[in-house]
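hiii, so i know i said id send this last week but things got crazy w the move. better late than never?? heres the sequnce for the chain we talked about at the cafe, plus the structure i predicted for it. fair warning i was half asleep when i ran it
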Amino acid sequence: LVRIVEFPRYVRDATSFPGMIGISESTGFNSRLDGEEAIDYPFYVTAHEVAHQWWGQQVVAANVQGAAMLHESLARYSALMVMEAEFGLPGVRRVLRYEHEWYLRGRGGERGVEPPLALAERQDYVYYHKEALAMYALRDAVGEARLNQALSRFLSRFALSGAPYSTTAELLEEIRPTVPAESAHLVEDLFERVTMYDNKGVAATSTQRADGTFLVRVEIEARKRRTDSVGVEREIPLDSWIDIAIFGESEGSGTVSARANRLPAASGCGTTTANSAGFLEAFRSVVSGPVVGYRTHSGLPNLPADSVQYGGTSAQCDSVTARYNALRTSETGAAWSSCPVLMLRVGPTHWVADPKVVDQYGQREWIILDSTLTILKVWHTTGDG
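okay and structure toks below
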């Protein structure tokens, strides 16, 4: 049994005690929730304080950097999931917009250096507002069930225990194994570093197909920045997946509810037409590091000379073919033949794949892949390519 107790509006506050939650008159009991865009913040605050019965009452953090993440941040995430269950995606998006706005306000007013979430101390704009965005992004990447399992394991380890008390390092020990390999950087980006994304849509067009579906092309600009321990911000390579959501005029009507396949963010999957010189230029635009010397190998366009060799197992080739054809079908409505691609390893970190088919216009499509065989770029070669 949990009791909710009102106290006068001397302060605008809410506090959770074992078995009792105190909420000020001005925080919940005389609130007005006018307008369709209003957030039911008495509900949100109450859910947050109820969550403290676990995070803060059962799990107690050690008195070190990051303690607020274990108490306040986990309670915030729990409340966010309750909001989503009660008000659906439109409701939780309003909350996330609110959290994003207040995080940026707090960040703009920081007089010192913003700490990573896992080391936050008195920076409430980090452990309250940034945390909601970070944990929701993590949930989106790993799935709610897997993240809940990690939190459950953490709770079982430290609930109602004495010293030594829990730390964020031990929380991340439970979270890290739940993250897929292609998103492993998320733990570092969200919790251990100060990382910002600058993503925006530049243009979008749609074409209706004969079967009633739509082919949607989206142009985006995306950047990733990181702030170091002395507050210097610099741009770093973008190695993250970017989800692209497409909505109709009325999100609630159900007439349009589509989500694009997740495309590699490193350079997009746009195609360009080039001869062999253009091939090399495109390769160098994607593959970082010096390129020393070139050679032509079995009629292929000029490739960097470092360790050019045939490679790739049959299963790897089939996997790349399937992903490539899915991408090509989404862009053009047609796939290549079902035969596997021909893969070549170029240096220690990149592959080049060549579909074994030349189309009727004499064009061949090429694919650059990273060491995990994730598609980074696709382009055409013509003529001597």
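btw The longest helix spans residues 67-108. thought thatd interest u
miss u guys!!
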